[in-house]
Amino acid sequence: QHPFVLVSGPCVLEDLDMTLHIAESLKKLTDQLGIDFVFKASYDKANRTSVSSFRGPGIDAGLEMLAKVKSEFNVPVVSDVHDATQVAAASQVLDIIQIPAFLCRQTDLLVAAGNSGRVVNVKKGQFQAPWDMKHVVGKVASTGNEQILLTERGASFGYNNLVVDMRSLLIMRELGKPVIFDATHAVQLPGGADGASAGQREYVAALSRAAVAIGIDGLFWEVHPDPECARCDGPNSLYLKDLQPILESLLAVDAVVKNR
Amino acid sequence: QHPFVLVSGPCVLEDLDMTLHIAESLKKLTDQLGIDFVFKASYDKANRTSVSSFRGPGIDAGLEMLAKVKSEFNVPVVSDVHDATQVAAASQVLDIIQIPAFLCRQTDLLVAAGNSGRVVNVKKGQFQAPWDMKHVVGKVASTGNEQILLTERGASFGYNNLVVDMRSLLIMRELGKPVIFDATHAVQLPGGADGASAGQREYVAALSRAAVAIGIDGLFWEVHPDPECARCDGPNSLYLKDLQPILESLLAVDAVVKNR
Amino acid sequence: QHPFVLVSGPCVLEDLDMTLHIAESLKKLTDQLGIDFVFKASYDKANRTSVSSFRGPGIDAGLEMLAKVKSEFNVPVVSDVHDATQVAAASQVLDIIQIPAFLCRQTDLLVAAGNSGRVVNVKKGQFQAPWDMKHVVGKVASTGNEQILLTERGASFGYNNLVVDMRSLLIMRELGKPVIFDATHAVQLPGGADGASAGQREYVAALSRAAVAIGIDGLFWEVHPDPECARCDGPNSLYLKDLQPILESLLAVDAVVKNR
Amino acid sequence: QHPFVLVSGPCVLEDLDMTLHIAESLKKLTDQLGIDFVFKASYDKANRTSVSSFRGPGIDAGLEMLAKVKSEFNVPVVSDVHDATQVAAASQVLDIIQIPAFLCRQTDLLVAAGNSGRVVNVKKGQFQAPWDMKHVVGKVASTGNEQILLTERGASFGYNNLVVDMRSLLIMRELGKPVIFDATHAVQLPGGADGASAGQREYVAALSRAAVAIGIDGLFWEVHPDPECARCDGPNSLYLKDLQPILESLLAVDAVVKNR
Lengths: 260, 260, 260, 260
Known about the structure:
Four copies of one chain form a homotetramer.
Chain A: E1 5-9, H1 16-33, E2 37-40, H2 59-73, E3 77-80, H3 87-93, E4 96-99, H4 107-115, E5 119-123, H5 133-141, E6 148-152, E7 155-156, E8 162-163, H6 167-173, E9 179-182, H7 183-186, E10 188-193, E11 196-199, H8 204-214, E12 218-224, E13 238-239, H9 243-257
Parallel strand pairs in A: 1-2, 1-12, 2-3, 3-4, 4-5, 5-6, 6-9, 9-12, 12-13
Antiparallel strand pairs in A: 7-8, 10-11
Helix pairs in contact in A: 1-2, 4-5, 8-9
């Protein structure tokens, strides 16, 4: 029974210096706390609310930045892919290929990700019942690749709001795959701000505690040194400087739940 | 910072012997674990799915049974009232007057409960936004009675299903009143069985851990020595014999969250 | 195959003059259009969002006003009852006893209404699956009274919003009872204004056309000569002066759907 | 004020003979009724529930079949594209490029579709508020292409169910683009059968009437000569032989609503 893994980083790659700074901070903190760490950042935000939103450095420059994080700090890295043509390049660098929630039923993308031989992390769609993730697992596993992670990030609840159905963590775990809770996307208010998604950072710590208390294998957080200036998902990102006490409390809950 | 209070008992009063047996077991267990205990049971199930369902002993016989529980074990008791005319009699016996979720906006009932001088526990309606409970609090408090408890028991999520929005525990707490999580009603599948509500007992312990991890003042559980034979809400009631290890784990989480 | 019946009037009884004025206007208009008419108004709004909201003249004065409407214009009248104790007095005057949506599962109220011998109109709860209305029908019909109407008024869809699932009109019709569409409550935004429900009057005509196109037995509208000054539900009430062209269009759709 | 356009055909291209048979039948019927007709069929079902489900002939063979339909019957054709790389080939044949609902926020796909110069039909995601389609329109229109259609196909309503919020037809119309109602996908029960989506064909005609009564520019139906044997979406497809009386009734409603 291991503590939860922390999958964390900025929403989108901004510049190399900041990327390395965030990775280094997270690596130090997780080493100190005895938590396994995976660095996460997107090279391209392919489904921003508005066409004029910042999308990131693109796949080539982005993968280069992620490769630097990987070599410099010796941490695994994860990022999103958006169609099957990106998988070959991405799997050269990424340890974990992530399938965005809206794309969690796109067969070609899931199969390409499976064929890469990398671990595949699929985010459950906001429209998807947790038990129906078994078919998603089946699509990836049809390639012979059973290294699959499943991530909860909230379900549609009326308009411009998501709800976390904590039962889904248990239902997905019964599919035999590790389950991750994406606490920072779960508090998004999709499209809730004009031309961008709003978010509720104030609930991230509490929902994370709830998920850890249910029992999870990993926790996914978007973090930023200065979320007010983040180029994507600032309203739901955590302040880098605030993480330590939250993680300590989560580890204590995790230890209770996993009888460590 | 106290541990959560346990509000517990059978869904409906069946017979006196069983009532006393359940109360005694719960009293012993909570004393041993250092948890405050309130005995809960309904004298009348006024909104069963079907007209032919068992409703309980009625208000007079029911209050008598509750009075015996109270005197025999020296525990406070709580039960539902269903219209303003019941409040006078009920408040002779009950320490806490409970307002059912469907009735959480009925002004006369809330005002009558407030005027009783007893503590009033209002269950949030399945149709009600958590921030709108401020108006419910206002109705009770208009009587000068500020002893109000607010209970989360799930929100409508499509048909025949409820979801617990864990954010609601935090939102209601901001109203300045103690918040209770009703874990056994939260796993009901309303009307999901033909002529009765189905339930998912298997999620009660995990959802309770999640709510305790968020931080709550009380936990509400329907329990029964033999839920398969319970005359109401069996599918979501916990087995009396199973409570101890669950409560111990919850207390450990509660201690972490409340820094005890 | 008859045209739909119009059930209409102000949300709440304000004063007698206005009440008679509205009733007379509606009676004239429906006579002219060949539509059967039932006058509707509440004597008590028992579940307003806030304790300080206007509630109406109360049962005695209210029933007196409704009796005047009935005798003066020779129209049937309908109003809400809120607990079983009101049914005896109400059924002296009312042709149709209406059960509010939040109370649609309260067994005693349904049975009392059934026993009155009057027609009983039950509004489907915002939390209730349409197929589960069969148990509601069963509660009323347990008294031997089969004169039951079922009304759709929207289902909970996230917080502070309702959605009309038009399938419900068909599902409830299969229960063998006439189905009414309450278009003005269906566009409420419950609790959406601070301390009162907001509403979307602009969608009433279109949703009414949709329901009539599905095929309904009755249409329920709250109307007011001056909704901006209405003491309840103004934002979703129709202007009395606007009804004629809307009704004419609805009658034309109704004739198509019912092959008249 | 024109009658609604009918966009119709089988869910997926099966074989050429059946394709031509369906197209010919629909062309004859719509000519006879004076309805404009667009033939619809998918060359690839890219997000079936299960990896082993039939997906169609693929893009090359599929576009060839669609080209034959177009030349033989002189009708415009529409089909889905699933990533930006497909748009160039697809726009050689298709008159309308369709963006699937799950992909309605994928910027690259929307921009590629816009750049094709073809009409772009975007299905509103099951997770998307209707007002947020303005940003989707903005993505396509950023290419200078303003020929955009918006399609309603239901919103997530709990698990394994969709609800049609008829208000969305009006809200999307305010964006200044023609609005289509996809009645056969709106009655899907996503993932509701084991390994495939179930559907409720019995509600298609009534929901279509409701949408036409609201006022729409187009109606989208999947049809099949033998839905029980259809290789995709059989449970929600209409029988080809049943269309005429339904369309006649819809035309009559359409004429009332549009004052023709």
